[in-house]
UniProtKB/TrEMBL annotation:
PANTHER family: 4-NITROPHENYLPHOSPHATASE-RELATED, D-GLYCEROL 3-PHOSPHATE PHOSPHATASE. NCBIfam families: HAD-SF-IIA (TIGR01460). Keywords: Hydrolase. This is HAD-IIA family hydrolase. It comes from Cellulomonas edaphi. Pfam families: Hydrolase_6, Hydrolase_like. One of its GO terms (molecular function) is hydrolase activity. The keyword Hydrolase applies. The keyword Hydrolase applies.
Amino acid sequence: MTGGLVGSTTPLADRYDLALVDLDGVAYKGHEPIEHAAHGLTAARGRGMRLVFVTNNASREPESVADQLTGLGIETAPDEVMTAAQAAAQLLRSRLPEGSRVLVVGGAGLVTAVRAAGYDVVTSADDEPVAVAQGFAPEVGWTQLAEAAYAIERGAWHVASNLDLSIPTARGIGPGNGSLVAAVRAATGVVPDSAGKPAPTMYHMAVERAGAREALVIGDRLDTDLAGARSGGFVGLHVLTGVNSARDDVLARPGERPHYIGADLRALLEAHPEPQAGPDGWWTCREASARVVDGALELGRGADLADLDVVRAACAAAWAVVDQGGAIDPASVPELGAPAA
């Protein structure tokens, strides 16, 4: 698998038999729908693509997530949801025997997953837990974080469901589990192990559950969703409905680059052109073109900054230079790509 963008002459829903779909910023934002998400996913299912929703959110149970998706017009069964809570429970199994005491800091989803794995869930460091499982929940506060710190100081293993510093909500970007984990880490000096993306654990679990031939990862974050795709050997689609922008794609580190870029989930129903190298350092994608000269990105004459082909050409040009040991001046990269319309 190359480190750049790839092309598909057929719609992605026809090429891949399973989509591993992130939730926040992709299927919905907080409790609000994302435009075209229901249509894109429903139409992809109609073409034979199966869906598993893979989320770093560990606060909710799969049944609750499935109910919310169904209410937004995306018919979903609980077994089509894979959470970081389930991944964290699997990580605990790698070291702890059943019946061990685990202090859970998080929501109902994490409590349920840890109990289902055979562990005794406790809420106090005085219960002498051998591990702390920490996941995001809006109700998590100082008292719970302090209990986690006390337990870890006494030798408990710290397992984080994920290390996302932020989460997209209907009101904006809020602190994520990684920010809360950072508070515990600052107090204890102990670096936790993480079960969530960018570790590809959940992707592999979902593919095994579905028995898929070839899976496509879909996400809005480069440092988790798309980094997890790269590290796990999966192909990744970045949709521009959440945290990261098309400009971020151009400046992405090699391990966080997408393979495809789409405005929203209608991208599943489209073919995707592959940029081509041309003379004098130019890269073209259909009518769009871009190159890098002395570290500065140049776009072809009359470039429409909202055109995804411009984004693709710019990514190809920038990534080629970086892969050859060069650098890109971020100031030369404009805001690119259109928000979902």
